[in-house]
Amino acid sequence: QMADPFLYHTGERSRYGCLGHEVQIEHIKAYVCRPSFFTDKAVIVIHDIFGWMFPDIRYIVDLIAGHGYITICPDFFKGTDPWKTTDHWADFADWMKDHDPMKVDKEADVVLKYLKEQCGAQKIGIVGFSWGGMAVHHLMLKNPQITAGVSLYGIIRDSEERYDLLNPTFFIFGEKDHTISYDQITLLEEKLRQYCKVAYKIKVYPGQVHGFAQLKPEDMKPHDKPYIEEARKDMIDWIKLFI
């Protein structure tokens, strides 16, 4: 029996009125939000296990777009069901086999092509949460078209080549995340120091559990709010630094 890895209750969420719209790109649906002015800078947001329609992730897309980026969250599950709050954690390992965060290359290429050819994007960054954080880590090792990345609470754990990042990457973690041990973060730090030839950063936010950084303002607990806001500002600052 696998323990529920999320310490917050994902079912208790306020609704969210989205600012963007949905598009179809080849075999993938995506949620897009654009700033009110022209820009050639874009950010891909990779959702967590709850998928591209989850209110939190759409809020994040709109938030990043508000900083002046064409922002897009593609459905990396390609129309298959995301994990649901009613699903049983005993089935999670099997579900993950069919939803591998390291098999996102084809979809990433489709979205990169769309951003370059249809939206005029010259520089493209990537941000991902949990499942999406693992996907970001993978893509920052594999895809030189992505200028910079932010991986939030997702680590590729079982690959020897996970430290030779192609472009600047920022890893965000919560101190109380019981899906990622402190030892794993320490190992990541040691190995990046050894092998990584580009800019990178690791930051652990005090007292924060898995999934902390994507909560909407009305769903934040008062004592977590400063850390959530700090993580979000750090995320945006990293993107602005390179894109």
Automatic annotation (TrEMBL):
GO MF term list: hydrolase activity
Record localization: Cytoplasm, Cytosol
Primary localization class, coarse: cytoplasm
CC terms in the record's Gene Ontology section: cytosol
The family this protein is said to belong to: Belongs to the dienelactone hydrolase family.
PANTHER family, per database record: CARBOXYMETHYLENEBUTENOLIDASE HOMOLOG (PTHR46812)
Protein name listed in UniProt: Carboxymethylenebutenolidase homolog
